[in-house]
Design brief:
Papain-like_cys_pep_sf; endopeptidase fold (from Nostoc punctiforme); single chain; Murein_DD/LD_carboxypeptidase; 24% helix; globular; NlpC/P60 domain-containing protein; two-stranded antiparallel ribbon
Length: 194
């Protein structure tokens, strides 16, 4: 009976992803902890996807953080075209927070599973300062008080062209631009986890 109850609770919280839900407001909110472990995978990157300001001027090298962010993005891209599945986090179906959660988890960074909880982590940054691997958050539900959608920045440039990978109910895992009318109107904030 305890296992069934535990399973039902897990399913309930999984199904609250990418949806707006009323949540009690705490006077002293405490963000969830982000755990970053050692990554044994070889870091890969290309100059095209790394902005000039991410390169160390004195050595000409790319920081390990930027390289890790690139690897997280490349991992997320393998899910492009996967259908939307509420609460999903596999190639058989995925929701927005499942995509972000799995992409970071695969590189030893553990985030909360729900988009509104992810938005309590990392450092809030201005949209014009986002880079590869940063998270963008939106309020897309019928209740506009809670963050209900998250995307992972795959590219940005100094002209404000920002693209992010995410999972939508209509098209599954796709790459969109922040300048598209819908995403521009529902954008709330950007956060840097790494």
């Amino acid at each position: 009976m305890k296992k069934l109850l535990f399973f039902l609770i897990i399913i309930f919280f999984s199904f609250s992803n990418c949806k707006s839900a009323k949540q009690a407001k705490s006077k002293n909110p405490t963000p969830s902890k982000v755990i970053i472990g050692a990554n044994t995978n070889e870091d890969i990157y290309t100059e095209k996807t790394i902005r000039t300001k991410d390169i160390n001027a004195s050595s000409g090298s790319i920081s390990p953080t930027v390289s890790k962010a690139y690897n997280i993005v490349e991992y997320a891209k393998q899910f492009k075209g996967v259908r939307y599945k509420f609460g999903g986090a596999t190639k058989s179906g995925m929701d927005c927070s499942g995509l972000v959660f799995e992409s970071f988890r695969a590189h030893d960074v553990i985030l909360p599973r729900i988009s509104r909880d992810m938005a309590k982590n990392g450092d809030k940054i201005p949209l014009n300062n986002v880079g590869i691997g940063d998270l963008v958050f939106f309020k897309t539900g019928s209740r506009r008080n809670d963050i209900s959608h998250v995307g992972l920045v795959v590219s940005s440039d100094d002209n404000g062209n920002i693209e992010f990978i995410h999972s939508t109910t209509s098209a599954g895992v796709i790459i969109s631009s922040i300048t598209e009318t819908y995403w521009d109107k529902t954008f709330v904030e950007a956060r840097r986890i790494l």
